[in-house]
Amino acid sequence: MLWNNYLFIIVFLFTAILVLLVYFKNPRKKSNPIIAHQLFNIRIITKKIFIYSILLALALTVYVAIVLGFTIFIGAENRSFYLRDFIPNIVATIAIAFGFEPIRRKLEKITDKFSFVGQYDLGEVTRQLGVSLASSTSLSEALRSMMEALIKAMRLEFSIFFILNNEQNEAKNNRIEVIGAPKEKLVEPFSEKLATYFKALQEPIIREELERDIRENKKIKEVAKGKAAIFMRSISVAMALPVFIKGKLIGIMMMPEKKSGDVFSAQDWRLVSIVLLQTVSIIERKHLCEEDQMKSEFVSIASHELLTPTAVIEGYLSMILDENFVKVDPVVQKYLTRAYASSQRLSRLVKDLLNVSSIESGKLTIISKRFNLKELVKSVQEEVQLKALEKNLKIKFVANVKDPNVWADPERIHQVVYNLVSNAIKYSKTGTIKIELSEENEFIKTSVRDFGIGMSKKELPHLFEKFFRAQTPETTDIQGTGLGLYISKNIIDLSGGKINVKTKYGKGSVFSFTLPKDKPGDDTKMMQTKI
């Protein structure tokens, strides 16, 4: 019995040493252990105590279970000392040694969900990012891949990237890429002076250090430094990193504090540096900056050139079809009507391309003013009534609001309502399309319900992406570009509202968006917003 106790202690210590050697065989041990393993971080210490307590309990349980199992099934009286004592201990040692690491990783993932503290493999993060960047075909795709990698690894709530245009040595904000935070969060405009300040500094800016510098030096002459601190605080970011390609500032990436509240570690800074270098290298190699700008300019120029002739064609056809202008043979009128409908479709497509170009270049303008949303929806209903009748569809409009006034751009909102109702008609075969206005706190909600094809859950995440169209047998013959919802979402986001969808395949969809209510005394005011 005494020998059994000694054997148990020897085997258990051997197992513990083996496991610890496997665990600490890590490149991080070359650095300062206090920094590498965050020894003074109470949250980390608590997590490790919790994890290793469970692991110790599991190890003891496994050991006892294996030894008892051998004792019961092999038999204590009929076996030699070798089989009775040594083999169970060897089996327990192997089981604990090989099971330790997978269980530890699983426990760490579980605790990370509650504490927001997680460790990441630097090599794995950069490898996955490399795969994602390799398939990027635009500047936006490359930047979003980079931000997603940092958000996931460092446990951030969001990330913002201001893409800049460098014209005549002046850095101007072109457009914004945001992940994890709505664009309306960016209440403060990104001024050209701030861009110039970041361009001159050419190094990361920590908001806390910036604010401390301002407090300690009250006579500070750098006004831009104060503005940078105010701007960073207004959008809740902790640090800003200027991004250069061939000495040219292409943008500024901003990140908030970690969800855990921990400071950025040396490993975090190393990750950011490597990820930035990796992304810049891909952008430079693929010439994504130049291609992105050329593509946007080409679409804009081509759209403008197409818009004039299509408008002329549409105008002349409209005049010919006007009964008071000239008498047309019924057969000819039928063909002219089709030509007129096609010219209208072409005109809408050109306008959509212009809107996409404006969105991507950060030049989509929203001119907000007071207007009656109920009257606007009625006008859209009248416009699409003929389309609905052609498919034997009814359009029902209900306004459950006392005051239908909202604060937005009426032309842009007309475009959104028209897109949603047109889609409802397009994807419905029979039944009724219901448009409803309702109040929702400080907003007015517009809903468009149809009982058409609907969509599957896997399509929802891509619904508001550019050029996305659902691919089902029912939609193959339905015409469309996949731009309407993309444009609508950007318009609603810029208007301070939100757009949502509820759908079920085969049952139909409900698209809804909110707009802020008009405030008393705002009828004479106008507000111009640009991305």
UniProtKB/TrEMBL annotation:
Enzyme Commission number: 2.7.13.3
Subcellular location: Cell membrane; Membrane raft
Catalytic activity: ATP + protein L-histidine = ADP + protein N-phospho-L-histidine
Transmembrane segment boundaries: 6-24, 49-74, 86-103, 228-245
Keywords assigned: ATP-binding, Cell membrane, Kinase, Membrane, Nucleotide-binding, Phosphoprotein, Transferase, Transmembrane, Transmembrane helix, Two-component regulatory system
InterPro entries xrefs: GAF-like_dom_sf, HATPase_C_sf, HATPase_dom, His_kinase_dom, HisK_dim/P_dom, HisK_dim/P_sf, Sig_transdc_His_kin-like_C
Single GO term (MF): phosphorelay sensor kinase activity
Main location: membrane
Topology within the bilayer: Multi-pass membrane protein
Domain Histidine kinase: 301-519
Domain of life: Bacteria
Annotated Gene Ontology cellular component terms: membrane raft; plasma membrane
PANTHER family registered for this protein in UniProt: OSMOSENSING HISTIDINE PROTEIN KINASE SLN1, TWO-COMPONENT HISTIDINE PROTEIN KINASE
Protein name: histidine kinase
Lineage, opening ranks: Bacteria, Candidatus Berkelbacteria
